[in-house]
Amino acid sequence: MPPIAANWRGVSRREAPRLLTFRRSSPLRIDTERLTLRLPEMGDHLAWSALRRRGADFLRPWEPSWSADHFSRRAFRNRVYWAFRAREEGRAVALFLFRRDDSQLVGAITLDSIRRGPSQSAQVGYWTGQEFARQGYMAEALVAVVEHAFGTLDLSRVEAACLPENSASRGLLERTGFVHEGMARGYLQIDGRWRDHVLYASLRADRKGQEQG
Q: 172, 161, 157: which is closest to 114 by C-alpha?
């Protein structure tokens, strides 16, 4: 599943000092059996860039093309600011995944495009460092984020999309309760090409039915 293509750019110097305000006023932490999920901070830059660099060949085929300054500190600062501002405004929840036993960064997951009113829905995207893939970390995080969406955020539907050939992501979604709903043609530009995606969704109503059953 490609990460949600958030608008990390365009943060002015005038806005940047507000980053500290968001850090103080909007703490968010989700703990699972092996992970801690929290919003990114500037102190995560080196760990994030190292993890992404090591797994570049593993990640690039599934993601939108990386910008020339993808690894720069300035671009990362914009990511951090966007994450705090988007959460404060109720538009998205962007979280980094850390192993609880050694604080190692494992990957990231974003609940984005949060829609209220009659929709009450959002989209989820995620990525895992290559050395941490297929160890159940993202399944653990995805379950926790969906629970947060249906509980704390009071959403009714969480959507996801991935490339048809991405069997690992499709298996992850299906194991964590997402249901295949169809195909979207030319859904996202991945690695420089417009690609079809298979669509999945998880409904709060379905989960309630499973619990009652």
A: 157
Closest among 204, 169, 171, 159 to 190, alpha carbons compared: 169
Q: Which amino acid is at 168?
A: A
- In terms of DSSP bridges, do strands 179-190 and 93-99 run parallel, antiparallel, or are they unpaired? unpaired
- Positive or negative, the CA dihedral 175, 178, 184, 190 is negative
In whole angstroms, give the CA distance from residue 132 to residue 173: 17
- Return the pLDDT at 1: 59
CB-CB contact of 158 with 146 (8 Å): yes
The amino acid at residue 126 is Y
Instruction: Output the CA torsion sign for 122, 130, 8, 194.
Output: negative
pTM > 0.90: no
**How far is Cα 200 from Cα 183, in angstroms, rounded to an integer?**
9
**Cα separation values, 12 from 16, 26, 61, 120, Å:** 6, 21, 31, 31
